[in-house]
């Protein structure tokens, strides 16, 4: 069947708009947990007097010493990045999936490989924003005392440059983080969604998709967290010598799951419903 003129651009525009909306909603809801996760990942060990004792202690300490806005430190880089990042994520997933449809792969493997490709592409786009975000989240001063996003970005570029020691620091770990996450996230979600029957009742159908998305985000978070910790370590303050142990690769797992479990479900649902609406009305 031949493609109608302009249909590819229309489809791409819809995927990009829906993906950007999904990312913006997710980051606004879940960013405080990202701050907590990053703080746990860059702690320098038990000898550090500023280390948090527990998840509850981290929330209390941040609120007491940095105020409510302390939970939104570093939010501007991801907000600036989320629209292009999630647009890239979902658009490239759809395009890789379409290309792989011509290969002799099973449908299940197609979803996973397309997810891997979308994650690697997404990582290249987002890494500079991650470097700035982590450096801001590592700052424990009151929100009003920390440098602005643009000042921090300019400082990194001026002192460390644009390369792998500066604004693209930790790119390899970011490629691993996003590639592995999206491979599991998309692979699990679409394979399981195709197995569990669609429910005619809209509320139950919403809950079906949300539940699958929640499990997808949780499993992907558990599998990819070593890459996430490595990225935070590379991009943030370095730990004391001898403090890195195997279990350190799983630091921040609880707040990460709390964020990307429901956050992953929110993102997929916003994307699917927004894309469906755009297809009908655009």
Low-confidence segments, given as residue ranges, are: none
Number of helices: 8
What is the helix/strand order? HHHHHHHH
Number of strands: 0
Largest sheet: none
User: Helix content range of the residues, please?
Assistant: over 70%
| Class based on secondary structure composition and strand pairing | mainly alpha
The global form is globular
Average of pLDDT:
86
Q: Describe it for me?
A:
It is built from eight helices and no strands. Helix 3 packs antiparallel against helix 4, helix 4 crosses helix 6 and helix 7 packs across helix 8.
Short description:
This protein is mainly alpha-helical. The protein has helices at residues 7-41, 55-66, 76-100, 107-137, 149-160, 171-195, 202-235, 253-281.
Top keywords for this entry?
282 residues; mainly alpha; 8 helices
